[in-house]
Amino acid sequence: MSQSVAQRLSDILITLPEAEQKNVLAFAEFLHARVRAEHPLTLPLPELLEPPQGESVVAAIKRLSRSYAMLDKTKMLGQTAELMTQHVVYGRTAEEIIPLLETLFMQHYQSFVEHYNKQIG
């Protein structure tokens, strides 16, 4: 759901009486159950690409973004930018930063899996 849709829905809900809020929730749960029955969720798996020899930090970010295409990169932007800053500004080597980026992407994928499991559970 886009941020604007979520915000609009929230704006509408807070103006409704509690009984109507419960009706909206019940309808949303009904739609959710129907969609899940028609289109069962399948967990997207990462397609881990091999890093080329001498890979740069920018190339690693692009490779990991392709490997973990299902992740919302905007949620990772701050952490990714921080690692890039450590490389460019503070001189940490690509050999130091790339494993940290790989760990970051794996952690975000694990969060994605946990969220997925809650959705189907």
UniProtKB/TrEMBL annotation:
Highest rank taxon of the organism: Bacteria
Protein known as: Crp/Fnr family transcriptional regulator
UniProt organism field: Beggiatoa leptomitoformis
